[in-house]
Sequence to fold (225 residues):
Amino acid sequence: DARVTQTPRHKVTEMGQEVTMRCQPILGHNTVFWYRQTMMQGLELLAYFRNRAPLDDSGMPKDRFSAEMPDATLATLKIQPSEPRDSAVYFCASGLVAPDHFGDGTRLSIL
Amino acid sequence: AQSVTQPDIHITVSEGASLELRCNYSYGATPYLFWYVQSPGQGLQLLLKYFSGDTLVQGIKGFEAEFKRSQSSFNLRKPSVHWSDAAEYFCAVGVSGGSYIPTFGRGTSLIVHP
Fold:
């Protein structure tokens, strides 16, 4: 079965550090999504790309978050500097138009 | 903007019993509708989606959902629940016009008793 692969699965770091999360979408999927899941807010869309072009990143705090797709096999989400309120599970998903497949997420803890 | 309400935070059923999870949406035009399932420590898995056509949608794992425009609902059903169906279930709605990007409900936790 084709899978969306996310690394790392877990990340613990101190406030102020840079965090980079990576995602390998399913080959052939042209739309990639980043979601954040917390108990308080549920699932929130942070950004999404179609054909590697960013279409919407209005869900991201622009001053500290950035999302890129350097090529069709890699999407990255960076946080710099990280803050305790960024602690959450971050999911990448891919599909042809909508998120058909999710990765297992990166569980991020900022101390 | 579109929104989704899943009225039940928790649902408890006995194994072998039928299941219906409720989902109501708010959107002025024809929505795109999704159901996903999430097991602990894992990502979401798409069960089924409705974009157009037949309002009764068949999905994976024996699930189905029915789009009822008059009730603004997209309830998920399964005739006989298995213990492995215990998980969190999310309904989501996307807008028409090309974006398809779903907004998620807060989820319903399904507990299955033996």
